[in-house]
Amino acid sequence: MHYLPEFSALLLYVAILFTIGFFVSRRVKTATDFMMGGRSLNFWVTALSAHASDMSSWLFMGYPMVVFNQGLFLGWWLAVGLIFFMFLNWTLIAPRVRMRTEEYNSFTFSSFFESRFADTSGMIRIFTAILSLVFYTIYISAGMMGLGFLIESLFEINYYIGISIGIFMVLPYLFFGGYRAIAYIDLFQGFFLLLAICLVPLFAIGKVGGISQAIEGITHYNRSFSILPDFSKSTLLTILFSIGFWGLGYFGQPHIVTKFMGIAKVSDMKKSMRVGMSWLILILAAAICIGLIGIPFFEGHLDNPQLIFVLMVKELFSPFFIALILCAILAATISTMDSQILVLASSLTEDFYKRIFRKNASSKELVKISRFFLLLVTLVSYGIAFFRSNTIYQLVTFAWSGLGSSFGPLLLFSLFSKKTNKYGAWAGILTGGIIAILWPYLQRFFGTEMPTLFPGFFLSSLAIWVISKLTFSKQDQKEELS
Known about the structure:
Mean pLDDT: 88
Strand content: under 5%
CATH class: Mainly Alpha
Helix content: over 70%
CATH topology: Sodium/glucose cotransporter
Number of helices: 18
Order of helices and strands: HHHHHHHHHHHHHHHHHH
Largest sheet: none
Number of domains: 1
Distance between the termini: 63 Å
CATH architecture: Up-down Bundle
Low-confidence stretches: none
């Protein structure tokens, strides 16, 4: 009975997820409903679903840790990069990808690329599906590991039971409700995340004696508020890498970009952007505050700074509310992981089953196959997560960089360039994917700490442009791009 309040809070959270999933799943009738929500979602759902699927447990653990350890400098520029590139995603990508994918009746990156470049050979689908399988399997497994570690630390439950509980929380609503269930659950989780992460620093600031005492404590423990300490080469390179380290990858993340495809009206995209960007700015500001206030709160030292949010919550609240607020970390992880599982299952359904085995498969058949692949992807990732690893951050970085390098440049070229063809598309996907896989080893050879996304994105873009230029013919100019 010792953990009764904590388990009660967890059961309440799970019950809310299942209730939303149950009611939403009753509207799922076709493959379009299951994979794309029938392209009928309002701007609120689209906004928070897109952003919640982006913010994993890193928001509560990794990001405040950076601020706690190093002060405002690095955390500030990471936030600038995330905000700037997500803004570009909304303005450059969102409206165009919504219109183009509906025009081609595409549910996945690969089916869109194939239609856009008239690739009858199927090579684009094959390359895209294989790289999606590689990077997303790693990404999903890392998410499951994170759930296992989190549930283990919260309830002192065995890690392997923890990842089993995590799957039980995700799979039922995902299996029956698909894209629509994810979108509405992400709407709830978006508000839940925002409330939790904003509430904690407000209580913590009172515990340290107010704003002035917090500022004194931060400076006392030798942390800086400066966002530009000097103009040295190393500082400017750090700023550049911080801005582009995560932000540049936004263009190539299918689990985020596909959320733009489900909005009912393209004309509502600006409203959705305002809601989403406001949410992002607030949530990053709150995470920075947690890191800064944590400095005087914990007297400048923690054995494991990654647990700053968890430990702060445990100091401030009663057991029931501790568990309820910490469910926000579960929400952040789940809202990313469920979208990734659906994207990969949709890709396997569209790119392997329908493209190779059953070109004339009915909509109901595709829904059944999608559910089968949901189970398969989840079980495979579950198996990989059994080999528990403490390098979750490295796994996520590898997968994010791989997806961003492989698909980001081609998505931009497909929406804005009239002279890109299928040969350039092949080259771009393969170059980005190969560089992302090899760069961690090449870094040591070249003696550089440059993040993978920089060479991967640049060389993929270069390959698309050069190969398209060398092989382009007027027949490749399939359509006029707006």
